[in-house]
Predict the structure.
Amino acid sequence: MTETEATSAAGRRGRRGRGAAGGAEARRAQRGGTAAPKSGHITRRIPYYEILRDEDLVLIEQNAETVLEEIGIEFRDDAEALQLWKDAGAEVDGERVRMPRGLCRELCKTIPSEFTQHARNPARSVQIGGGSTVFAPVYGPPFVRDLDQGRRYATLEDFQNFVKLAYTAPAIHHSGGTVCEPVDVPVNKRHLDMVYSHMRYSDLPFMGSVTAPERAEDTVAMAKILFGEEFVENNTVLVSLINANSPMTFDGTMLGALKVYARHNQACIVTPFILAGAMSPVTAVGTMTQTLAEALAGLAFSQLVRPGAPMILGSFASSISMQSGAPTFGTPEPALVLYGMAQLARRLSVPFRSGGSLCGSKAADAQAAHESSQTLLPTVLGGVNFVLHSAGWLEGGLVSSYEKFVIDADQLGMMQVLCNGYDLTENGQAMDALREVGPGSHFLGCAHTQANFETAFYRSSVADNNSYEQWEAEGAQDTAQLANKLWKQRLRDYEAPALDPGIDEALKEFIQKKKDSMPDAFT
Amino acid sequence: MTETEATSAAGRRGRRGRGAAGGAEARRAQRGGTAAPKSGHITRRIPYYEILRDEDLVLIEQNAETVLEEIGIEFRDDAEALQLWKDAGAEVDGERVRMPRGLCRELCKTIPSEFTQHARNPARSVQIGGGSTVFAPVYGPPFVRDLDQGRRYATLEDFQNFVKLAYTAPAIHHSGGTVCEPVDVPVNKRHLDMVYSHMRYSDLPFMGSVTAPERAEDTVAMAKILFGEEFVENNTVLVSLINANSPMTFDGTMLGALKVYARHNQACIVTPFILAGAMSPVTAVGTMTQTLAEALAGLAFSQLVRPGAPMILGSFASSISMQSGAPTFGTPEPALVLYGMAQLARRLSVPFRSGGSLCGSKAADAQAAHESSQTLLPTVLGGVNFVLHSAGWLEGGLVSSYEKFVIDADQLGMMQVLCNGYDLTENGQAMDALREVGPGSHFLGCAHTQANFETAFYRSSVADNNSYEQWEAEGAQDTAQLANKLWKQRLRDYEAPALDPGIDEALKEFIQKKKDSMPDAFT
């Protein structure tokens, strides 16, 4: 779908089932919340950085086909999946599925090369695939950390705080999913509060629950209340995260959630989540081979469930410390895997997810920053379409960090500028300025500088660019201390985007009914 | 010169003037110091990241020619320079020199596209240009900083410490020049101690003094003592830093030093040092146009002095805070200038210097790390040949930081691995590992992992990859605190490389005689 088509699809939402929505949308457009101006997503104007040659890529693709044909992939605890594979011509041996060469690649041809994920605010809808890049927050941590209270288990309040911080960050395009795991809410009910928080405290697109097929169904049901039933059946409003159990295994829970979303024409990211050396070979090419094989199997399976369902090829690969086994980030090896997988995904014509602002550090310090930048820049240059973990990820994904969230978000703003590339217009060439100033003078006051200075350079919200003397006088605070003030200010300034009261009421009713229908479970 | 030629040139050094040297070299090879194993320089096996198209580059080149032709460049306080330009066909008006279109580019054709800078230890000689990358430390700061004593004026002891830290860092290939400014030594004599420190405490290649023509002559004289007179006349043993006074001006001091080095066939980096918005237009393309014009003028001038003298095209460009005027680093705009200038330098077939681990932060914190990585990765991907400021740069270049030096040096090690690209051999493909392990198991114990784990992943010397619990138990130290221990340990472990006692004596004599010949001057 082109961007024009995406815009008009968003426009059609006025015609959806729920009568009140059209009016609510019109009011919302006038009232708004405190979301910073956002572009929806990044449309890159810079080339991809590609290291591998075509013949290298063909070699890896052939090796991946060999994995699928000779070794196969296990589809566990899902008889339906095995039957679908059998019907498609695969060799099924117990739960092991061996795919004839080329079968998965052929099945993947029905995956859209790009699609729109709609937000309840049409201006926030994002394009996923092609030359677009979407930044989404950290996903999954059971802990949170801030400078005041240190590291602790995450709560629903933390969850809502991170939704709000993403909403107010100019360069974050997506509300994400499990921005942290609210462990104060029963396991079997928390998905309801999580999905509601994304719907209520943000108007960005968001992700659905994948921890059980029935929770995926709940997510779709809530999306239908928010967007209207017909709109959800005809458009993608959810992107959800399906991880392979590497090596070469998909489990019943993930398959169940994947089937729910695919049948509703909602998108999933099929991601082999790999700590290389433990869950894949220690080499970059070996890890890419396995990642491609697993992703091909998962993506192809989605098309057996519903041909044409929107899907994203995911790759998560870290290196590990061969001494302690701990995952390590920001090292060159995962960057090489990312660059290569981006090339492989483009050859498959499917949207690609990888990277982020990953780190293994326990604090928002120099290690965290180096590792994050050394992941984020490959993410952008390599051409990732959907960037999970783009802000807030700390300690190998165990922790959502408040300070790191705003530090990372600032870097995302820089990436947005980088993707714009060069201004080669007459104004960009600045020959008038050069002629006006000449040798030995300065450009601060010249007409060209005056006309351009407000937008000429990226203005960091985090970096301290004061003099040493001023910095000392203000307490010689490091980046984490400055960021601590920033996230608190943003939460104080936060105002929720408007939500139609009828929809809000219907969502709350749905949640209450679901919660009342079962006892709390904490495991 | 190819790498083979470089090696044999280094071998010829046994035949140089000073009789004792051959034997000293042989002994040194056996005794060595505590330098980590180094490769001499990086030979990249990954492509350049190039954003601009050929037609964009031609446009910028044409604009630069317009600057040279219409506006011109000032060559101040140097009558000889003006005469050389006049003789070459330029239009000289006072100190303003206007060059006919294409003249500078034509003159630059005699600059070698790559050359070897010889180190006194032939194994440490570096190739500059082509697909090579050389990392050199920070240059110029009057202050140093460490966690124990904070920020203070630099001393000769600090200078020697940074020389030692570069010598012991596995991924630093070059000893640099003014690793900090030893302000405890008189201004008119400190170049002698600085040059001696590089010669005595390291066996890496180094840079010469540029603060006055006679100090450049002293540097050459000392190099002749170290390398032998004939060797210096026939080989490049010095690379020195000549900055333009942007916009569009060269001063007499820099021109004087440039002439000295060029006449001795020693290399210079001709660098327009630009804070964009103050010393150049606020746009990337305008800054590149001016940088190219200034560099072309300086490089062409060097070839008027001595055709064939080895030269490096330099580009230093930061953005500035349009509020405070402070330079800012690690933002997207300087990265765009770097990528573009690298392309322009390659079209000119001259070696290129830019980038480093630049930052504006006052501490070795997350800001410092983000800004450094966001400079260093473009440096490497863009294809910089000579990387000044690759370690230790803090606070916009006002401070050499002990902690940041070792943190940066660790990142340089990662860049070395990145530049190796992919292992596409059978071992790299790891199909045996995939077959051996299969679905649902793990790779930790498999034969392929066992055979490769020691070299599979970059091992950071700085990053803490321990568990949260262990990190807490060890005091929850951040990266700067860990780095503080590391640089102290490296200085404790340091052993000087052997130096022929006769040469050492001769150097000391030369220095004493020079020092005795003039009164101390502190301005």
User: Anything to note?
Assistant: Chain A is about 45% helix and 15% strand. Chain A touches chain B through 122 residues (CB under 8 Å). The two ends of chain A are 42 Å apart (CA to CA).
